[in-house]
Amino acid sequence: MKLNKTSVLMMLIVSILILTTFTVGAEEQKELKKVRIGVPPYSMYMIFFAAHSLGIDKEFGLDFDIKEFTATLPAVQAMIHGDIDISGNCIAEHLVALKGAPQIKNFSTVGFFKGFIFVGRKDKTKPFSELLKEMDQSKAKEFQLNEFKGKEFAIIPQRKPLILDAIAQVGLKAEDIKFLQFADDQKAATAFIKGSGDFYIGSLPQEQRLLKMSDQFVNVGGSEILGPGGLWYDTMVSTDKFIKDERETALRTIATLYRAIKLFNEQPMKIAVQAAKALSRMTGGDFPVDQYIEFQTVYDDFLSIDEAKDGFYNNQSPLYWKLPVEYYMKMALEQGDLDKPISSEEYYGESEKLFNELLSRKDLVDLINAPFK
Question: CA 58 to CA 252: how far, in whole Å?
């Protein structure tokens, strides 16, 4: 078939357009920056799976490569070896890890955890709700805390400050109780089910797993009996090298997190579907979507960019990071988890600078706050 000049020209234009489309697509793919994220098996960190599944990371030019860990400490060890860039943690556990990993610094907020619950054996202790029928809250609290004397707690080591902080309110000390320590929360909860220990306190998924066995276990008190150590932030940690040398990637990673949190606040089901699936897989439990939403609205609060600005990073707020850091540092020193005081500014100050730098980036803030389609 003979082609005229117009046909040849049209075919040439179409060919160029097709080639350009594939070239641009390939370039866009190359431009995605991989971020290796360590995720422990706690509900709040499942938001990273959702952010990746929904493509929120790609909106910021990133590709989340998520690695699963059974606890925060193995993730810190992986970070030291250069296997991941950031990982889930919390203030109390971060400070304990500093003894062996002084290069680990705070990276960002995730949420504010309110879900610590002491779980006891039904045949040996009364639930807190039952005590409230017999006495007022202050007396019920005192009674329950005194019940801990001489008892054994199945826990991971990072929970010790939380327990010691609680029993100190009634004058009890470390020598008044016993700790059965396990490598991760799931192992501690499983050992508790099999008969080890009198009480368990740990991750929310494991607490809920135990309380579902209502013929065996009861809620003996949560925030009602906890001390000041109950001010517990979910955070992310990283190395000083990543925070400074990969500054743009660090800013975009935090921006991705805040956009995912915005989506959860506006359309929780979209995040929860992916997050509940990941949580069930990582914990060996069965957590439906509605329960995940309950976890992240009743027992834990994701901190939006505005909430982080007004609380965690606001030095005039009672929620400012320095207050729980100094409190937990004191506890860590008393327990020997730290050899000497640390500079809270050195380990948390850079994340505040990073956050304030994010606020100054109109391009990123606008993308965080853009309406969802």
Answer: 10
Instruction: Name 85's Cβ contacts closer than 8 Å, sequence gap at least 6.
Output: 35, 36, 37, 79, 238, 239, 242, 246, 249
Helices (H), ranges, the chain: 5-31, 47-53, 56-59, 72-80, 91-97, 128-134, 137-146, 160-167, 185-193, 204-211, 240-245, 247-266, 268-283, 289-294, 305-310, 322-335, 344-360, 362-369
Render the burial of 196-211: b for 16+ CB within 10 Å, e for the rest.
Answer: ebbbbbbbbbbbbbbe
| Residue pLDDT, tens place only, 209-238 | 999 999 999 999 988 898 766 668 999 999
Q: Are residues 126 and 204 in the same domain?
A: yes
Distance between CA atoms of 122 and 20, rounded to whole angstroms?
68
Question: Per-residue pLDDT tens for 257-308?
Answer: 999 999 999 999 999 999 999 999 999 888 999 999 999 998 899 999 999 9
Give pLDDT tens digits for 51-68.
999 999 999 999 999 999
235 and 364 assigned to the same domain: yes
Domain boundary among 225, 244, 279: 225
| Residues paired with 221 in a beta bridge | 118
Partners of 178 in the beta sheet? 152
Chain mean pLDDT for the chain: 90
239 & 90 share domain? yes
Angle separating helix axes 185-193 and 204-211, nearest 10 degrees = 20
Same domain flag for 360 and 252: yes
Express each pLDDT in 171-209 by its tens digit: 999 999 999 999 999 999 999 999 999 999 998 889 989
Residue span of the structural domain in which 360 resides: 32-114+231-369
Q: Please choose, from the candidates 56, 133, 45, the residue with its C-alpha nearest in 3D space to the C-alpha of residue 90.
A: 45
- How far apart are alpha carbons 207 and 192 in whole angstroms? 11
Specify the number of domains making up the chain. 2
Domain boundary among 207, 225, 243: 225
| Domain identity same for 257 and 346 | yes
Residue 10 lies in a domain: no
